[in-house]
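tool=predict chain=A
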Amino acid sequence: MAPQPLSPQEIQDALTELPGWSSTGDRLERTYTFAGHLAAAAIVTEIARVQESLNHHADLTLSYNKLTVSVNTHSAGGKITELDTELAHRIEQIAVEHRVA
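tool=predict ok
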């Protein structure tokens, strides 16, 4: 069964458990800031591993010391689903280990 889009209230409820994340249009997004480029780049590989394990992938935009994560579920018409909130929670766990600035 394909993932179902979350209601606006379900999205807001999920965001209460995801500090720093927001819903922008039909996407969950967060920008992380790191001490420098190597720290920002290092987290990308770990996020990629989690994405592969979930078979669910976010758009990752890397700049000098920032990483922006933007995610929605293509198979749900580009809407936000539980897959997106699960990925966001997993990324948060990784970010804590990387001591986000």
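The chain has a mean pLDDT of 95. The chain is about 40% helix and 20% strand.
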